[in-house]
Amino acid sequence: MTEASAPAPRRPGEQALATLGLAAPALSPADASAHAFPDGGLWRTEIPSVEGPESLAEVLKESDRLDVPVHRVSQGSGVWMLTDAEITEMVDACASRSIELCLFTGPRGTWDIGGSTRTDSGGAGLRARGHDALAGCVEDALRATGLGVKCLLVADEGVLWTLHGLRERGVLPADTTFKVSALIGPVNPAAYAVFERLGADSVNIPSDLALAHFTEIRRVSRAPMDLYIEAPDDLGGYVRMYEAAELIRRGAPLYLKFGLSKSPGIYPFGAQLRETALSSARERVRRGRLVLDLLGRHGADGGMSPLGSRLPGPLNRFPLTDDKD
Questions:
Q1: What is the DSSP annotation of 108-172?
Q2: Could you give the 3-state DSSP secondary structure of residue 236?
Q3: Which of 115, 145, 307, 320 falls between 20 and 30 A from 29, CA-CA?
Q4: Taking a C-beta distance cutoff of 8 angstroms, is the pair 285, 66 a contact?
């Protein structure tokens, strides 16, 4: 795999602050990630919460208008909330643009009968409760990949390990990738490495991690990170646009996710939320343009993966057990 270091961009306000004796300390090369995507790129882009064909069409139209490159679009409501025809339409539209389509597996705990998910502690959160919920996630994975979907979002360690086992045994296509949800994202390097070994091909990390945490994770794992540069309100509503260059430098290989704060939740999506979903889809693309413009102004827009890139390269995995043992 090609290794690369992130670029050393101009930092925000750098020259003006230096004239006042307020220059920031020099960046340490030891903080930078030593990893890259297999194509040599340091970052890719993702538009999240694209809940159906109509929202996808808005994303594609707006990305053309604003010249926003898109490597991946992801959906949050779940495979089970889409018809076969809707999934096929999304697969075809993404394939025509060499964009990776990622759909969420379900059911998951927040929509289940478990009352603990609605307590202050959150209980088991999004995790799949019991054998039947696990089986539902597997059913979603089989159905989605059978219709041409190549990336699946998971919110449960057991679901991830199960789907990885099915991929290794040829039940799921070998080029299927698994993406860990931000709602169970790891917050320390050991946990991040465990998700990689369980079969994750990219891992959402919470948007409130400090810069030093990115460096700590990169010292133990090369699995791509997914990061909301702007997070939805239910993930904190953080806006880290001015840190984008440093996040790439420390976190590469990194998916820049263009989320949207101050926007109503739309999961699980239905026609009653149509106007919100469409306007949100357009604005997420615009937010992406703002981030890319900022990177450009700071000379930090180099290192993007070629459009159409999707695979993460070789990653570390736990060995699968022999069924006969």
A1: -GGGSS-GGGGSTT-TTTT---HHHHHHHHHHHHHHHHHTT--EEEE--HHHHHHHHHHHHTTSS
A2: coil
A3: 307
A4: yes
**How far are the Cα atoms of 28, 58, 135, 248, 308 from residue 65, in angstroms, in the given order?**
38, 10, 42, 25, 19
**247 Cβ contact list (under 8 Å, min separation 6):** 211, 214, 227, 229, 240, 254
DSSP states of 23-39 as a string? Answer: PPPPPPGGGS-----TT
Q: CB of 255 within 8 A of CB of 224? A: yes
Q: Which of 268, 301, 232 is nearest to 47 (CA)?
A: 232
Q: How far apart are CA 185 and CA 45, in angstroms?
A: 18
Q: Please, are residues 221 and 193 in contact by the beta-carbon 8 Å criterion?
A: yes
Token readout for 42 is: 């340091």
User: What are the counts of helices (DSSP H) followed by strands (DSSP E) for the chain?
Assistant: 9, 8
Rounded Cα–Cα distance for residues 235 and 221 (Å) = 24
Task: Give 10-residue mean pLDDT values along the chain (325 residues).
Answer: 54 90 91 97 97 97 98 95 97 98 84 62 69 94 98 96 98 98 93 98 96 97 97 89 96 97 83 90 97 95 96 96 61
| Residue entry with tokens 């994975």 | 141
Token pair, residue 315, equals: 């990653």
Q: Are 248 and 42 in contact (CB under 8 A)?
A: yes
Question: 258 by DSSP, 3-state: which?
Answer: strand
∠260-276-202 over CA atoms, to 5°?
Answer: 40
CB 192 within 8 A of CB 254: no
